[in-house]
Amino acid sequence: MTHSLVSIIVPSRGGARRLPRLIEALRGQDSAQWEAIVVLDGDVDGSEALIEELAGDLPIRSIVFSENRGRSAALNAGFEAASGSILVRCDDDLVPAPNYVSTHISEHERGEAGLIGLYLNVLPTTPYAKIYGRPRDLKFRQTAYTTPVSEQWKYWAGNVSISRSAYDLVGEYDLAFRAYGFEDVDMGYRLHKAGIPVRLVPELETPHYVAAVTTGIRVDRSFHSGAARVKFERKHELDHETGPNQHGFWERATKVAGQRLGRKQLGTLARTVDRLIPVLPAYVSEKCISFLVESASISGAEHATQIDTRI
After folding, report:
1. Final residue before a domain boundary, out of 208, 228, 246
2. How many domains, the chain?
3. What's residue 247's pLDDT?
């Protein structure tokens, strides 16, 4: 194995409760060939002092923005400051295995590539998690691993790595993706278009203490993701559909709901479903959540002007 330095870039905002798990996981790495740069997108909860206290003699440092500038800006600042030849983008709610760094190194030694580790989402024991969150997470990962290699760039997210040379080739994360979603997919697509192979690495699957733990949160994220998807497709001149192009009852219903309901209305319905999950049959609850999540994605595409760009 070579002596490549791995730079782990961690964008964070309000992460004081999440960062201790990540720092302890980094402390347990079986390779010393790493540094970590935590970019605080506005220190709203004392994260800088916490990092200094917990990191000790670990090669971890902080970059602190005076105000919220968005995830893309935080990633760009971290990548710019990184010293490594391998650049890892790591969410602050991940818990990397002891071989995380060494696996990134060994996989990059196989040749130029963008590497993706899927999330192993950790959800609290709630009705939402049992009925929707965990089954959907399992289905998502099963689908991902059956996706052709030529399309695996679509899974570029918060647990990935590229070489410094690849990053210099494709450029920074796009600051236009200011709210939630698609700054990562955009990067994956640009790597793909530049001819850099992008592939899933099962050994890099990493526990992820997911933030979307209720229907309300999941629906709100779906709304923002739908709007960001439109921006991504327009940027790259890709075909855009506001909803599924099938013509069954479900597809027509979600499309109508998405076109007629806005973010606040969908949020109200989602919170109502959260209250009803414990008393509804599981099948009915799952269908209600699925309907709202899909409708929210369509609504985000239809009502993109409602997006709060400060997120």
Report:
1. 208
2. 2
3. 67
Q: Are residues 202 and 302 in the same domain?
A: no
Range of the domain at 223: 215-306
User: At residue 1, does pLDDT exceed 50?
Assistant: no
- pTM of the predicted model, to two decimals? 0.91
> For the segment 190-200, what is each residue's pLDDT rounded down to a tens digit?
999 999 999 99
> What is the domain-level CATH number for residue 48?
3.90.550.10
Pairing state of beta strands 86-90 and 159-163?
antiparallel
Residue 139, domain member (yes or no)? no
Please check whether residue 134 lies inside any domain of the structure.
no
Give the confidence band of 238 by pLDDT, cuts at 50, 70, 90: confident
